[in-house]
C-alpha cells in the first residue's frame, strides 16, 4: 500500500496536486454565445450608421477633410496606444510566465488551482488582459486627437515666458501633449506592474503562505511573509525603477505647470513658485532618479532594504521640500513682504493678461471730468449722434414682435432680439432685427408628417428702426409680414436653418410633384390662399438611396424614414443639425462660438453671422476667467459648464446660410497663432479676410462675449501699476442691471455714439463700470463695433475723476423712480387693474461733455394673453436733471432748458400706425391725471395733519384721497 505522502526522488515532499476544477454545466452556452454575437452585431451596426451618416454630412458641406483628418488621427492614436499597452502587457506577462518556478512548494489550495488554470490557459489570459487594457488605452488616445493635431502643427507665438524662457506655444500646444504622453506611460507601466504581480502570485513566485503536511498526515497552513523568487524580484524591481523614472520626468514637467496654474494672487509664476516649489520639484526629480537606479541595481543584487529605504526617504523628502518648505517661504517671507517680493511677477502677469485678452492697446482717459450741469443748446455738437440713441429695447420688445409679426402660432422669435445696421435711403440706420422661425412645440398636430415634412421652415427677417416708433407706440417696421415687404429685399427669405430649429426635416421631391411644405400661411402677396413649397436648395444629405435611409432611420431611431414612402422619395434630402452654433461646432470643433448668433439679410439672402473664438487656458502667466460667469448677464444666461480660459481671440467670423445651411469661415485675426495652427491642420477651410463680401462686412460687428470678457478683466487689469494692483485700491465691477429682476449684471449695448473729441458717431458696443462695492460711476467703456471701419476694435475708456461723484445705473434708476414728474406720468399705469409700465434698458451715452442716461418706458394695457408692450415715454437724466417725455426730443429739451440744441430725428418718420393715436392724451386719461394729482395733494395734506396730531383732518383728507383714486381708476376704464 502506497504512502499517503510519497517522497520526491530528491527527498523533498511532493506537493499534493490540486483537485481539478469542476466543470460548470453549460446548457445555455450556445444561447449566451448567440446573444453576445447579436450584441456585438448591434453595436457594430449602430457605430457604422453613425460613422457613415457623419461622413455624408461633412461631405455635403464640402468639409470632408475635417471628418477624415480627425478620424484618421484618432484611429492612429488608438492603434499606437493600444499597441503599446498590449505589447507591454503581453511582454511582461510572458516574462512572468517564463519566470515561474519549475518546482512548486506548498501553497494555499486556491492558489494551486489558480496556478493550474494559469498554466493551462495562460495564452488566453494574457491576450484577454492585453485586449481589455489595450482598448481602454486606445480610447484615451482617440480622445486626444485634437491635442495631437495642435501639437503636430504648432505655430510659435513669438512671446517668451520670462521665467522658463519658453515660447507661449510650448504651454498652449506642447505641454498638454507631453502631459498626455507621460500619463499614458504611467498607465501602461502601472497596469503592467499590477498584472505582473498577479501573475507571479498565480505562478507561485510570490507567496505569503505555504502548506505543510505533518508526519501524522495533518495539513497546516503557515505564513511565509514576502517570499519572492529571484526572477520575480528582478522583474518587479525593473518595473518599479521605470515607474520612478517616469515620476522624475513628471516632477520635471510639473515645473512648467506653475506658469498656467493659480497661486495666491493670480494665474502664473509667483515668488514662492520660482524660489521654492520649482526648486523642490528639481530636488524630488533627482531623488527619484537615484531611487530608480537603486531598483535597477536591485534587479541583480535583490537586496530590498536599500531601495525600499530610499523610497521612504524620497517620500519624506517630498513632504518636506514640496509641502513644508514652500509653505514656510510663503508664510514667513512672501506674505510679510508681499509687494516687494511679488512686484516683478505682478508686472509680468499684468502684461501677459492684457496681451492674452487683446487689451494691450486699450486707450484710457484718466480723470475724465464730466459735465453735470445742463444748459440750453448743449447738445448742438452731438447733433449727428442723437438719432443713434436706440429707443427700442431688444431685450424687452420680443413679445411685441411676437404679437404683431408672428402671423401664425407655429412661428416664433428669439426672446432677446438683435441689433444690426442697414443702409436705408443712403444712410446707415440702426435696427432691431429678428428671424421668424418655426416653433416645433406649437405645431397644431405634431404627427410625424407635419413635424418633419410640412412645417419645415420659417420665413423672413423682421426689422424695426432702433430710434423710432409709431404714434401708438408700436415699432416702426423696416421689414415685416409674409412674404416680406419693406426696405429689405429678401429674395431668399425661407429659414430652414435657425436658432430654434431643433428637429430634422425631410425636404425635396421629384420634378412635377405637388409641393407639401407650408410656405406662406396667408397665401402669398395676394393673401388669397395658403401656399406650399418644395425645397430647391443645396442643403442636406440626399436620402434617395434606400440603404442611406435605413442608416438614418437607425441613427435617429425613427423607422418612418423607411416606412413613409409617400413623403420620403428618390429626391428627398435630410436636413439636421440645423442650429447655426451646432453646425459651426461640428465643422470647426477647434472654435468656440459666441453665445449670440444673429440674422442678417445680405444680397437678398437670410444668413446667420456667428463670431467664433480660439481659446486656451494655458497661456503662460495670464489670469484665468470663467467664460460662463463672464458672459452671463441680464440678457444672456448660458447653460454651459464652467470653462476657465486665459487666452481669447475673435479669430474667425462664420456665416451660415439660412436656406441651405452652408458654413463659410473667414479668418478675422489672421495673426493669431492658434488660428494659424489649425489652418495648417485643415488647409483651405478658413478663407482669407479679404474674401468677405462688402455687403456682408457691413453687418459684422464686435462680438458681445469678447467684450464681456474684456470688461470683466478690466475691472482689475485696467491698472498697470503693480502696487495698486496688489493693494486692490482701484477695483471696478460690472453693475447689476437695475431694470432686470434679480442680481444680474447689466448687459452691454450696441448703439451709435460720438466719443468725446471725435467728429462722427460710430456703431459701438458700450458698458459702464462702478467702483468695487459702490454705486457711483467709475468708468465708461466703448469699442468700435463696426467691422467695416478702419478703427474696428478700438477700445477706449473714460475713467471718471474722483473729485466729482456721478450717479451709477442703480442710483439713476432709483432717482428716476422717485422723481415726481416721472411718478405723475406713470401713476395711471401703476394702478392695480389698469395698464402696467415697464422700464427698458438704461442706456449711457457720452454727450454734451457729460454722460446722459436714457431709458424707454413701455406700457401694456392688460395682462391678458394678447397684450403686448408699446413704447409710451422716454426718461432722460443728465447730472441731477431728470425729465420724462412722450418723445426723446421732448425729454431732452426739458432737461436742457427748453432746447437741447439738436434734433433726435423722431419727427422725421412717417405715421404708419394702422390705428392712429391722438398726440394729446385721451379725455379719460386727462381726467384721471387730474384726479390723481388731487389725490396726491390730499395724501400730502393727510400726512401734514398727522404730524400735527390732527386726527380728524387726517381721516378726512385720507378719505378724500381714496375717493379721488377710485374716480381716476373709473375714468381710465
UniProtKB/TrEMBL annotation:
A Gene Ontology cellular-component term: extracellular region
InterPro entries: UPF0182
Pfam families: UPF0182
Keyword Membrane: yes
Protein keywords: Cell membrane, Membrane, Transmembrane, Transmembrane helix
Signal sequence coordinates: none
Positions of the UniProt region annotated as Disordered: 1-28, 508-534, 620-641, 899-926
Keyword hit for Cytoplasm: no
Record-given protein name: Uncharacterized protein
Amino acid at each position: 500500500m502506497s504512502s499517503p505522502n510519497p517522497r520526491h526522488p530528491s527527498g523533498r515532499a511532493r506537493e499534493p496536486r490540486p483537485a481539478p476544477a469542476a466543470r460548470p454545466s453549460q446548457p445555455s452556452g450556445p444561447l449566451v454565445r448567440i446573444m453576445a454575437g447579436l450584441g456585438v452585431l448591434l453595436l457594430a451596426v449602430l457605430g457604422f450608421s453613425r460613422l457613415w451618416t457623419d461622413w455624408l454630412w461633412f461631405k455635403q458641406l464640402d468639409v470632408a477633410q475635417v471628418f477624415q483628418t480627425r478620424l484618421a488621427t484618432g484611429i492612429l492614436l488608438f492603434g499606437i496606444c493600444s499597441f503599446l499597452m498590449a505589447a507591454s502587457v503581453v511582454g511582461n506577462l510572458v516574462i512572468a510566465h517564463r519566470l515561474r518556478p519549475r518546482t512548486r512548494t506548498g501553497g494555499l489550495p486556491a492558489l494551486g488551482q489558480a496556478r493550474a488554470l494559469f498554466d493551462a490557459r495562460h495564452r488566453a489570459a494574457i491576450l484577454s488582459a492585453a485586449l481589455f487594457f489595450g482598448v481602454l488605452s486606445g480610447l484615451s488616445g482617440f480622445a486626444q486627437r485634437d491635442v495631437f493635431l495642435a501639437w503636430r502643427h504648432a505655430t510659435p507665438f513669438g512671446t517668451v515666458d520670462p521665467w522658463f524662457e519658453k515660447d507661449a506655444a510650448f504651454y498652449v500646444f506642447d505641454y498638454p501633449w507631453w502631459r498626455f504622453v507621460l500619463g499614458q506611460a504611467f498607465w501602461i507601466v502601472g497596469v503592467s506592474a499590477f498584472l505582473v504581480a498577479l501573475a507571479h502570485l498565480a505562478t507561485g513566485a510570490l507567496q505569503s503562505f505555504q502548506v505543510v503536511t505533518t508526519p501524522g498526515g495533518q495539513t497546516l497552513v503557515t505564513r511565509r511573509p514576502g517570499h519572492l523568487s529571484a526572477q520575480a524580484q528582478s522583474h518587479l524591481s525593473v518595473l518599479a525603477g521605470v515607474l520612478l523614472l517616469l515620476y522624475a520626468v513628471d516632477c520635471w514637467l510639473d515645473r512648467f505647470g506653475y506658469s498656467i496654474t493659480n497661486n495666491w494672487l493670480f494665474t502664473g509664476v509667483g515668488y514662492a513658485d520660482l524660489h521654492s516649489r520649482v526648486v523642490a520639484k528639481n530636488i524630488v526629480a533627482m531623488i527619484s532618479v537615484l531611487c530608480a537606479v537603486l531598483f535597477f541595481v536591485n534587479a541583480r543584487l535583490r537586496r530590498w532594504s536599500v531601495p525600499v529605504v530610499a523610497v521612504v526617504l524620497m517620500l519624506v523628502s517630498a513632504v518636506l521640500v514640496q509641502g513644508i518648505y514652500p509653505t514656510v517661504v510663503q508664510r514667513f517671507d512672501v506674505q510679510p513682504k508681499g509687494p516687494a517680493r511679488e512686484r516683478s511677477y505682478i508686472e509680468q502677469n499684468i502684461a501677459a493678461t492684457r496681451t492674452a485678452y487683446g487689451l494691450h492697446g486699450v486707450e484710457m482717459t484718466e480723470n475724465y471730468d464730466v459735465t453735470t450741469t445742463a444748459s440750453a443748446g448743449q447738445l448742438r455738437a452731438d447733433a449727428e449722434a442723437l438719432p443713434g440713441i436706440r429707443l427700442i429695447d431688444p431685450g424687452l420688445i420680443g413679445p411685441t414682435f411676437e404679437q404683431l409679426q408672428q402671423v401664425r402660432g407655429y412661428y416664433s422669435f428669439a426672446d432677446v432680439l438683435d441689433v444690426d445696421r442697414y443702409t436705408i435711403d443712403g444712410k446707415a440706420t440702426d435696427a432691431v432685427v429678428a428671424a421668424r422661425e418655426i416653433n416645433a412645440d406649437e405645431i397644431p398636430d405634431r404627427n410625424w408628417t407635419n413635424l418633419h415634412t410640412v412645417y419645415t421652415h420659417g420665413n423672413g427677417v423682421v426689422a424695426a428702426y432702433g430710434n423710432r416708433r409709431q404714434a401708438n407706440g408700436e415699432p416702426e417696421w423696416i421689414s415685416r409680414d409674409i412674404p416680406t415687404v419693406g426696405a429689405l429685399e429678401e429674395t431668399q427669405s425661407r429659414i430652414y436653418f435657425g436658432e430654434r430649429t431643433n428637429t430634422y426635416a425631410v425636404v425635396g421631391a421629384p420634378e412635377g410633384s405637388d409641393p407639401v411644405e407650408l410656405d406662406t400661411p396667408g397665401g402669398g402677396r395676394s393673401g388669397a390662399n395658403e401656399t406650399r413649397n418644395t425645397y430647391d436648395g443645396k442643403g442636406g444629405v440626399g436620402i434617395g438611396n434606400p440603404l442611406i435611409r435605413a442608416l438614418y432611420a437607425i441613427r435617429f431611431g425613427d423607422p418612418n424614414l423607411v416606412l413613409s414612402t409617400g413623403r420620403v422619395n428618390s429626391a428627398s434630402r435630410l436636413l439636421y443639425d440645423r442650429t447655426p452654433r451646432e453646425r459651426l461646432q461640428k465643422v470647426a470643433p477647434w472654435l468656440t462660438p459666441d453665445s449670440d448668433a444673429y440674422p442678417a439679410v445680405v444680397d437678398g439672402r437670410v444668413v446667420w453671422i456667428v463670431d467664433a473664438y480660439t481659446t486656451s487656458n494655458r497661456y503662460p502667466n495670464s489670469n484665468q476667467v470663467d467664460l460662463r460667469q463672464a458672459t452671463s448677464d441680464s440678457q444672456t444666461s448660458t447653460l454651459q459648464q464652467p470653462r476657465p480660459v486665459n487666452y481669447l481671440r475673435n479669430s474667425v467670423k462664420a456665416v451660415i446660410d439660412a436656406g441651405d445651411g452652408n458654413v463659410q469661415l473667414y479668418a478675422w485675426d489672421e495673426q493669431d497663432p492658434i488660428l494659424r495652427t489649425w489652418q495648417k491642420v485643415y488647409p483651405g477651410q478658413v478663407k482669407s479676410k479679404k474674401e468677405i463680401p462688402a455687403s456682408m462686412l457691413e453687418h459684422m460687428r464686435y462680438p458681445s462675449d469678447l467684450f464681456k470678457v474684456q470688461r470683466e478683466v478690466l475691472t482689475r487689469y485696467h491698472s498697470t501699476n503693480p502696487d495698486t494692483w496688489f493693494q486692490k485700491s482701484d477695483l471696478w465691477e460690472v453693475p447689476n442691471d437695475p431694470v432686470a429682476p434679480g442680481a444680474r449684471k447689466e448687459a452691454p449695448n450696441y448703439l451709435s455714439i460720438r466719443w468725446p473729441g471725435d467728429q462722427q458717431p460710430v456703431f459701438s458696443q458700450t458698458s459702464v463700470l462702478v467702483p468695487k462695492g459702490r454705486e457711483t460711476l467709475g468708468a465708461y467703456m466703448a469699442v468700435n463695433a463696426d467691422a467695416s471701419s478702419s478703427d474696428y476694435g478700438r477700445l477706449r475708456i473714460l475713467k471718471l475723476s474722483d473729485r466729482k461723484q456721478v450717479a451709477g445705473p442703480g442710483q439713476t434708476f432709483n432717482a428716476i423712480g422717485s422723481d415726481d414728474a416721472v411718478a405723475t406720468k406713470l401713476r395711471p399705469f401703476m394702478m392695480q387693474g389698469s395698464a402696467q409700465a415697464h422700464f427698458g434698458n438704461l442706456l449711457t451715452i457720452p454727450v454734451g461733455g457729460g454722460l446722459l442716461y436714457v431709458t424707454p418706458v413701455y406700457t401694456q394695457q392688460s395682462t391678458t394673453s394678447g397684450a403686448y408692450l408699446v413704447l409710451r415715454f422716454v426718461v432722460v437724466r443728465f447730472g441731477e436733471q431728470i425729465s420724462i417725455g412722450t418723445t426723446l426730443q421732448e425729454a431732452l429739451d426739458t432737461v436742457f432748458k427748453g432746447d437741447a440744441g439738436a434734433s433726435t430725428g423722431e419727427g422725421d418718420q412717417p405715421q404708419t400706425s394702422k390705428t392712429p393715436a391722438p398726440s394729446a392724451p385721451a379725455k379719460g386719461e386727462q381726467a384721471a391725471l387730474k384726479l390723481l394729482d388731487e389725490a396726491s395733494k390730499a395724501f400730502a395734506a393727510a400726512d401734514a395733519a398727522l404730524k400735527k396730531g390732527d386726527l380728524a383732518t387726517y381721516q378726512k383728507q385720507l378719505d378724500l384721497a381714496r375717493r379721488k383714486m377710485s374716480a381716476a381708476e373709473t375714468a381710465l376704464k
